[in-house]
Design a protein that fits this description.
Layout (H helix, E strand, L loop, with lengths): L3 H11 L2 H14 L8 H8 L1 H81 L8 H104 L1 H166 L1 H189 L1 H145 L8 H8 L8
Helix pairs in contact: 1-4, 1-7, 2-4, 2-6, 2-8, 3-5, 4-6, 4-8, 5-7, 5-8, 6-7, 6-8, 7-8
């Protein structure tokens, strides 16, 4: 007999739908009118519903897990699509920023060209005013040091802001790590609580099942004891009535064989009906199982197709991104190389031009200084010659006057008057010449004042342009800071997304771990169930052997009864022969009695004797019929039990075979599912590795852009420094030229026209 507890445990753990339906069909067969009063099958029927409910719960749990896995796959697909959209948006932003950077580069090139024009104009002014530059080097160096200090202060401020941003980023990362730790702790606590609740629920269900099983076992043992008592009573009754049964076996054998044939026909018909019903249910269960398996295969195929499409999309997106990055990098490198080459060539050309103009200016100034020196020397020589000539003339006149004083007083007087007149005319001429020179000097001073005003206006214009340059430099620095902040924000977003992907991978690893643990528990439970089924099979085999031994004993009993029936037949034949002999003797006695007492009296006595014999045989026949009916019922009941036990054995063998086949199929499905899960995890890891590589490449591109932006900003700052230096130099040169022109002396004589032409020349306009 199969143990109900083991059957319950097996059904609660691993009983599939097909097995449940097979058991249901067996139970329906056992509930049929052909098996009344079978307490063992009734005990099996009582926990059949529990087995079915356990099977349904197990199936619903499996469906729930499949739905959960489907939802997780859908969530993973949505996350991957969102990642693709975010990556496309990031690429679009990169492209827009590259175009904006190109526009800013063009604007910067225009500004640089304007600055270069301004530098050229300032260099022209510096070439015109470079003569007195040495006197103001100290002021220039002090202003340069002040500007360098201001730039250093601004750079320190930018560095401080950068360090503050880095500190805020570290603080944000620390908070993110703290949040992740808190989430991990909460998840562990929730998992522990769930494990505790699951263990408590498992213990509660186990205790409940154990109690119900113990109650069923006690009921089964009680019914088994009642059946054994009834069996012993019936066996005692059979033993007590065996003699009467042996007498009635001759007649009952034919009835028994007829009833046996009828019952065998009815049983064969019922068995065919049950087999057809079981086959129909098994086919329906197999069709449902195959349909579910086909649906699962279709879902798995769809999932694999989606994964392949996702992988193809990732590969295509990676290729497009790599091509775009390569094109952008090549375009940027080409533009950068061309820009650097143009800037370097322009710088070299401007530097050579500046050096040449400076050398020409220095040479011209040197030549002008030499010419002015030569003119001054010639003017001094002529003045000294004129003074010597006047002195010599005065000495000659004095000598002549002294010689002629005595002899020619009248001539001397006349000559003195003439000389005085000449001296007065010369003095008037000198006064007129002095007035002209003073007027010219005043005109030169006025011209120098106008030149100083123009230079002051040029200096103010230069300062305004320098202020504009500083404002542009500050704007560029602010744009650079904002761009660094945006890049830091993008980097933080990338870090957050990477952390989210890492958390998803951790969750996937946790799900895989749980799946592996579930597989291990399933394998352990399957091994335990296999051992339990093996032990149950051994117990069933032992029970079958015992049943076969009982059947063999009953066959021996039937053979013994057959022998006894043969003996009884012989005894009945002997009794019949004795009856015939008694009949012959009775006839002879009748003849003698008729002859002795008369026919009427003999008939009366014979009638009375026949009545007594008929009553006696009627009673015996009724008793034999009653015993025959009881024996037939017992025989039919025993045959039904034997047939039902044989059918139950066959059904258990079929059920065990179908269960083993289902378990093997399920094991193969679990293996295929584990292989698919490993392949999926491998693909997911490959996708994650590619994502990390793409992220590293994107970070490298961002770092290159930052470095190039820093170089561009440093080049702009250097250009502004050159502009400011040139402006300061021009202002100082203008002031030095004005002071030098104020200190120059105004010449007189024949070279005055040259000096006037050099003084009256218009000053160059400030750019």
């Amino acid at each position: 007999m199969r143990d109900p507890a083991k059957l319950r445990n097996f059904a609660a753990d691993d009983g599939p739908v097909a097995v449940r339906r097979a058991v249901s069909s067996v139970d329906d067969a056992e509930k049929s009118p052909a098996a009344p009063g079978l307490t063992t099958l009734d005990a099996i029927n009582r926990f059949r519903d529990e087995i079915a409910s356990e099977f349904e719960r197990r199936e619903s749990e499996i469906e729930r897990r499949e739905r959960s896995l489907t939802e997780q796959l859908a969530a993973l697909d949505r996350e991957q699509r969102s990642h693709r959209l975010a990556e496309q948006a990031f690429q679009q932003k990169c492209y827009e920023r590259e175009s904006a950077q190109a526009a800013r580069d063009a604007e910067f090139a225009q500004r640089l060209s304007r600055c270069e024009t301004l530098v050229t104009e300032l260099e022209d002014e510096q070439a015109a005013l470079d003569a007195d530059r040495a006197s103001l080097d100290a002021q220039k160096s002090s202003i340069r040091e002040a500007m360098l200090a201001e730039l250093a202060a601004e750079r320190q401020k930018i560095d401080a802001e950068r360090e503050t941003l880095f500190a805020e980023k570290k603080e944000f990362r620390r908070r993110a790590e703290a949040h992740e730790k808190e989430y991990a702790i909460a998840r562990d606590e929730l998992r522990k609580g769930w494990d505790v609740e699951r263990e408590a629920l498992r213990k509660q269900l186990t205790a409940k099942l154990a109690n119900e099983l113990s109650v069923d076992r006690r009921e089964f043992e009680k019914q088994q004891a009642q059946w054994e008592d009834r069996r012993r009573d019936e066996r005692a009754l059979l033993e007590s009535d065996r003699a009467a049964h042996e007498q009635a076996l001759a007649k009952a054998k034919g009835d028994l064989e007829r009833l046996g044939r009828e019952q065998e026909l009815a049983f064969a018909r019922r068995r065919r009906e049950l087999e057809a019903e079981i086959d129909a249910r098994v086919r329906s269960a197999e069709s449902a199982f195959h349909r579910q398996q086909a649906e699962w295969e279709a879902a798995r195929t769809a999932t694999e197709a989606e994964l392949r499409e996702f992988r193809a999309d990732l590969e295509e997106q990676k290729a497009r991104q790599e091509d775009a990055l390569a094109d952008a990098r090549a375009e940027f490198e080409r533009h950068r190389e061309e820009r650097l080459h143009d800037i370097e060539a322009a710088g070299v050309a401007e530097r050579e031009k500046f050096e040449a103009e400076r050398a020409d200016s220095i040479a011209a100034l040197s030549a002008e200084k030499e010419r002015l020196g030569r003119e001054a020397a010639a003017f001094e020589t002529e003045r000294r010659a004129f003074d010597d000539e006047q002195r010599q003339r005065w000495e000659r006149v004095t000598a002549e006057l002294a010689k002629l004083r005595q002899s020619q007083e009248q001539e001397l007087l006349a000559e003195r008057v003439a000389f005085e007149k000449e001296q007065a005319a010369a003095r008037i001429a000198l006064d007129e010449e002095r007035a002209v020179m003073e007027n010219r000097l005043q005109f030169q001073k006025d011209h120098l004042d106008r030149t100083r005003d123009e230079l002051e206006e040029a200096r103010r214009e230069l300062e305004r342009r320098l202020q504009q340059g500083r404002t542009q430099a500050v704007g560029l620095a602010e744009q650079f800071r904002l761009r660094q902040a945006q890049l830091a924000r993008f980097r933080e977003l990338l870090d957050d997304r990477e952390a989210a992907i890492e958390r998803e991978w951790v969750a996937l690893a946790e799900v895989r771990k749980q799946t592996d643990e579930e597989l291990l528990r399933e394998a352990a439970r399957r091994r335990t169930d296999d051992e339990a089924r093996r032990r149950e099979w051994d117990a069933e085999q032992i029970a079958v052997k015992h049943l076969e031994a009982d059947l063999a004993a009953r066959a021996e009993q039937i053979a013994a009864r057959q022998a006894r029936l043969d003996t009884l037949r012989g005894e009945l034949e002997a009794t019949h022969r004795e009856n015939l002999e008694l009949r012959v003797a009775l006839d002879e006695t009748w003849v003698k009695l008729s002859q002795a007492a008369g026919p009427d009296k003999a008939k009366q006595q014979l009638q009375a004797t026949r009545t007594l014999v008929a009553d006696h045989f009627r009673q015996k026949e009724a008793e034999v019929d009653r015993r025959r009916a009881m024996f037939a019922d017992d025989a039919a009941h025993a045959r039904k039990q034997i047939d039902q036990l044989e059918a139950h054995r066959k059904e258990l063998n079929d059920w065990l075979s179908s269960t083993l086949a289902t378990l093997h199929r399920r094991e193969e499905e679990l293996k295929r599912w584990a292989v698919a899960l490993d392949a999926r995890e491998t693909r997911s890891q490959a996708v994650a590795a590619k994502w990390r590589e793409e992220r590293g490449a994107a970070e490298g591109v961002i770092r290159d852009l930052l470095r190039q932006l820093s170089e561009t900003t440093s080049d702009a700052k250097d250009a502004m420094t050159v502009v400011e230096s040139a402006g300061i130099a021009g202002r100082l040169t203008a002031e030095g030229s004005a002071s030098t022109a104020a200190r120059r002396s105004v010449p007189s004589g024949p070279h005055f026209g040259i000096m006037r032409s050099s003084v009256d020349a218009p000053a160059p306009k400030a750019g």
